[in-house]
UniProtKB/TrEMBL annotation:
Recorded superkingdom: Bacteria
Organism: Roseibium aggregatum
Record domain AB hydrolase-1: where: 312-560
GO molecular function list: carboxylic ester hydrolase activity
Name this polypeptide is given: Alpha/beta fold hydrolase
Record's keyword terms, sorted: Hydrolase
Pfam family, one: Abhydrolase_6
Length: 590
């Protein structure tokens, strides 16, 4: 049997995720924010599982207005984040019966964890992973990282502003100002917990902060945070660092009481029904599937009356169920206000859903993902019966495209920036995810720009990597031109036959297929591969509608692009066809 997902439990008017264990010392996790949170969700889940196996109960809580939490009032700032971490410790003690608390913070979460620990008398230790001692320096680094990310996505920096200014993630001016006031080096300490500091390679600020803690009389152990940069490089390809997990578990077992030396039964963990009420929506964090393996959030209209189809939002790479810039959270809630129910969930070994036993760690572009979606549809048949509409971006679009053919319960799909429609088993997944977001024409345009020439001359462009991307595109175009003449003799010819077979099957069933591509996105090359440079081959399918989103990157980072997508979802999911079908099913059920 697969491992169970963490139990959703209430935390104030929101929820947290609980990993049960019987030790007398428990952990409260304070995660990173924004892009870093999207990269590290799976890492913290895996770490929590290993700590729970070692006897430490764990509660993972998110800050107001982040991840799945309700959007906060405008003046919510740093105090709201610290208060959540403090309240989470009380909730953990209620759930587990533990008497002592440890905090773990990652990135900006390390500052939140340390500040929360100063407000309690029951904290024995704090893990500071990739620590943030200066909030002002942190905000500079966040903005710099966002600028680099946006440049890599092909976005004009001057066109990205407002509440999507940090790689699509929102942060209020109040919170930005509050975070800049953090200065742990000058903090007057009320408690001196034992500390484990995981320092990033080459980061002197991390080492200096660890030294300042030791000078203040804290017992400090330092370890190198090996694998930090691979973890935070990109949500689609994030790699969990095993040594960091091992170091934290070892430090915890060495210094604090766990189940092995705690003579108490603990508090049994049992599933709870947690309901979060928001502005026009009601959300329920859920686990489902074999042994409760899968985690998701069911979002319904606050009236309880649903219309249209039920949307299912799928993962992109290893990015978890909230989507880039929380776009799936935003979409789910806006749809709920218009009467649409949705489920956003993590497939196996992504985000908050554990791995399936016996399967490889790499799960992107694998057939196992189709099984995961099928399990989600089984769940929806019980909880929200009706037509199902799959929504996926990039690798999620690949899953939606193929699952719609395999499962007759799927009545519609939206494929957003699909880099692959048919997967080549001989292709390297990470290379495909990293190289495919720009089409060949975009490389040509960028090569002609003066600033690109300057960056090449100054060594700021990886010519080998860029050349590899261009060679891949050129090879693909040559193969595309030969395919009509060689047919099934070529690999592309076989892929074309499989692709057309899928489109034919959906056309016979009358499934609406919405193909959404951002301007200058690599997914346009994939469409041209099968339907011609002008995509005229799509006209053979009256059930297919293609839309080009202007001035947007592969992730739909700009606010205008996100609004465009939300409008397309409205049109697709509020179509009268769904209500007609729903009425027929209701009568049949009676």
């Amino acid at each position: 049997m697969p491992r169970s997902a963490a139990l959703p439990v209430s935390l104030g008017e929101d929820f947290a995720l609980y990993h049960a264990a019987s030790g007398s010392t428990g952990y409260v996790f304070c995660g990173a924010w924004g892009y870093d949170e999207l990269c590290s969700r799976k890492f913290l889940r895996r770490l929590a599982e290993d700590l729970a196996d070692a006897g430490f109960p764990v509660l993972r809580a998110d800050y107001p207005g982040t991840v799945n939490m309700r959007d906060p009032v405008p003046d919510t700032g740093l105090e709201g984040w610290i208060g959540t971490a403090v309240d989470a410790a009380d909730r953990l003690k209620e759930l587990s019966g533990c008497s002592r608390i440890l905090y773990l913070g990652l990135g900006i979460g390390s500052a939140i964890a340390f500040l929360a620990a100063q407000r309690r008398k029951d904290v024995d230790g704090v893990v500071l992973a990739g620590p943030v001692a200066s909030g002002r320096r942190y905000m500079r680094e966040v903005q710099l990282h966002a600028n680099v990310t946006n440049e890599g996505l092909g976005l004009a920096l001057q066109g990205i502003h407002g509440d999507t200014g940090f790689s699509g993630f929102a942060m209020s001016e109040k919170l930005q100002a509050d975070l800049k006031t953090i200065n742990l080096d000058k903090l007057d300490l009320s408690t001196r917990p034992r500390c484990l500091v995981l320092t990033r390679e080459g980061n002197e600020n991390d080492n200096a902060f660890a030294g300042s803690l030791a000078e203040k009389g804290l017992k400090v152990q330092c370890e190198t945070f090996e694998g930090y940069f691979a973890l935070m490089a990109a949500p689609t390809t994030s790699v969990v660092p095993p040594k960091a997990i091992a170091d934290i578990v070892s430090w915890s077992k060495t210094n604090f009481a766990s189940a092995s030396d705690a003579d108490r039964p603990g508090v049994a963990a049992s599933p709870q029904t947690v309901i979060v009420k928001g502005d026009g929506f009601v959300e329920q964090p859920v686990t489902f599937g074999p042994n409760g393996q899968f985690f998701g959030v069911l979002c319904r209209p606050e009236t309880g009356d649903s219309t249209g189809a039920t949307a299912v939002f799928l993962n992109t790479g290893y990015g978890h169920h909230i989507g880039w810039g929380r776009i799936w959270v935003r979409a789910a809630r806006e749809l709920a206000r218009k009467g649409i129910t949705s489920l956003r969930f993590d497939m196996a070994n992504i985000g908050d859903s554990p791995q399936t036993d016996g399967l490889p760690d790499q799960v992107i572009y694998t057939k196992e993902a189709f099984n995961d979606v099928s399990v989600a549809l089984d769940f929806l048949e019980r909880e929200a019966p009706g037509p199902v509409f799959l929504v996926g971006r990039c690798s999620g679009a690949y899953v939606a495209f193929n699952e719609a053919v395999l499962d007759a319960r799927v009545k519609g799909v939206m494929l957003i920036n699909q880099l692959r429609l048919i997967w080549d088993p001989g292709e390297d997944v990470e290379a495909a995810l990293r190289s495919g977001a720009r089409p060949l024409d975009e490389y040509r345009r960028r090569a002609m720009r003066l600033e690109t020439v300057k960056r090449v001359l100054t060594g700021k462009v990886d010519l080998i990597r860029a050349g590899g991307h261009i060679f891949s595109h050129v090879s693909d175009r040559l193969s595309r031109k030969l395919a009509p003449y060689l047919g099934p003799l070529t690999k592309l010819g076989r892929f074309r036959r499989a692709c057309f077979s899928n489109f034919d099957a959906m056309a016979r069933r009358g499934i609406p297929v919405h193909v959404v591509n951002c301007e200058n996105d690599g997914s346009l090359d994939e469409l041209a591969r099968y339907f011609g440079a002008d995509f005229s081959g799509l006209k053979a399918y009256p059930n297919v509608v293609q839309t080009i989103v202007p001035n947007a990157d592969h992730n739909l980072t700009p606010e205008d692009a996100q609004q465009h997508l939300l409008s397309l979802l409205d049109q697709a999911l509020l179509n009268a066809r769904w209500n007609d079908g729903q009425a027929v099913r209701s009568q049949a059920a009676e």
